[in-house]
């Protein structure tokens, strides 16, 4: 390989975002500056995650968040870092996080503030103490024209189809950022030697069919009935071969595998979580946006996740997402009884 072809293959996420931005006439650069806040924060988070166990950062913070869950120290650190890196971006007017009860207004009064960023700073954080992958998810909404600066809920209570960008970072055996601005899905691997996210997975498309289903099967008896029949059908091999199961218990990691390898991931209603466990605005919506952009589908059991009109910041939703073949099979079972 000569030097020119090597250089042509090197594309950082910042360069990619700038290229994407050129598609929007009159783009000022503020959107790429906004996204660079996310890439900077997630690099700082991954550095902390990589050192968990070496510093006094694993374990519980001693507080309970708005969901009634015990906050881990890394939840708090990740939330603070994202809030800091994003609140210095002038184009952002509202921040909302899994870890904060209410959305935060930033740059109050600035007409330049036109985006809301909604995030889960460290999803799956209860896995940190045992060295399992965790992740960050983010969703970006544009301020509706009729939304006042001091009405942050109106900025963020929009259906997922209104997202202008969404993505996640998985802190796994490597650190990978996956994002979309509605023009395909692109993945970047952090090169730790240079501290930059490099394009490693251009234009991700889900395989038409995979070989895994991903669900917490311990709750199966409390799922709505169609899910049991669906899982049985996958195990029997009705789609051509019997499926195997993979479940990490960290949504970002389970979804990342499903995006790359195909298959299906589901977290339906259960007895202890009758509305599902995953949160619509900062978990289901960004993931559904990416899955659809990659050629898959994401449903709440019957309807499209991205069509749900939210009514509260932390509302939950059941979810089933996956490759075309698995989702068609689910819908066919559902059409008989759902
Ligand atoms: P969290 O946001 O409090 O970390 O919880 C969300 C996580 C997801 O990452 C994962 O899919 C799910 O909880 C696992 O739940 P369960 O242990 O019930 O299977
Ligand atoms: Mg979460």
CATH class label of the largest domain: Alpha Beta
Largest sheet: 8 strands, mixed
Structural domain count: 2
Q: Which homologous superfamily in CATH is the superfamily of the largest domain?
A: Fructose-1,6-Bisphosphatase, subunit A, domain 1
Order of helix and strand elements from N to C terminus: HHHEEHEEEEHEEEEEHEHEHEEH
The helix fraction, in percent, is 25-40%
Describe this structure in words.
This protein is α+β, with helices and mostly antiparallel strands. It has 2 domains: 199 residues, Fructose-1,6-Bisphosphatase, Chain A, domain 1, CATH 3.30.540.10; 126 residues, 3-Layer(aba) Sandwich (D-Maltodextrin-Binding Protein, domain 2), CATH 3.40.190.80. It is 32% helix and 23% strand. It has 9 helices and 15 strands. The strands form 3 sheets. The protein has an 8-stranded mixed sheet, with helices on both faces. Strand 1 and strand 2 form a beta hairpin. Helix 2 packs antiparallel against helix 3, helix 3 packs antiparallel against helix 4 and helix 6 crosses helix 9. The longest helix is centred in the first third of the chain and has 21 residues. The chain is globular, with a radius of gyration of 20 Å. The relative contact order is 0.12. The mean pLDDT is 91. Bound molecules: 2,5-anhydro-1,6-di-O-phosphono-D-mannitol (AHM) and magnesium ion. 2,5-anhydro-1,6-di-O-phosphono-D-mannitol binds next to strand 5.
